[in-house]
Design brief:
alpha+beta, eight-stranded antiparallel β-sheet, two-stranded antiparallel ribbon
Amino acid sequence: MKHNKIFAPVVLALAFALGCGIWAYSRSKSKVVMTSQITSQTPVMEPGDALVDIKTSMGDIRVRLFGDTPRHRDNFLKLVKDGYYNDVLFHRVINEFMVQTGDPDSKNAPAGKRLGTGDPGYTLEAEIVYPKHFHHRGALAAARQGDQVNPQRRSSGSQFYIVTGKAYSEQQLKQMEQQMQMAAKQHIFDSLATQHRDSIITLRKNRDQAGLQALQEELIALTEKQAAENPVTLTDQQKQAYTTVGGTPHLDNQYTVFGEVVSGMDVVEKIEKSQTDSSDRPLDDIRIISMKVVKK
């Protein structure tokens, strides 16, 4: 079948049960309200939204938390009130991509220590409100483990990132859209394979290659059908944002975007431009001093 090369062999879907990754994300008709980082307008507060001030060693950042991602909003507000984020580092910083923080193990971490696995001991159910919330410059989103070990795309209980990204041409966006469509198909296929895990194991034990091939063909056909019913396309709002101020479109519809920067994007950019080591940790510690709930 012509689509066979699109997806990994069905047996590879079993890899979801192996090991644990770090809390990170891979270099892998709703009204959209843009922040002042995207337009020149003051952001409109919607019902349930909250504001939080983040005081860092490089300056202050104000973020708006979305009311339509209540689990993430409430969890973030609780951690802020508990002082959980005080003294944590921006432990993962990549130019033209994002800045990441929220690892409790980063507090007082010695220079050179690899960070990114710390959390409060729980994860959050995904709240992917797409395409209303997407990865434009200034978006705030939850980090998570990769799909292979986290097919439900549950979020870290504390780690989050702020998008910086870059601007794309229309042609680049078309290519990106095709990649997103392929990623969506892979996710559908992996989910279907997980549902058929017992059958796959039985077929492998029996060394039934014909049976495995037939099952793979069946899952590919189902994948194509589901993908056609829910096509992945960029909205006009996304295209406008990604061709002007920029962002990270390849992360869309895969991670929970639960807020955005209201002011202080210049501080985020200073953090983004800091020198880092081979693990993307800034050579000079950049710290969250404190956070404060301004409005809830």
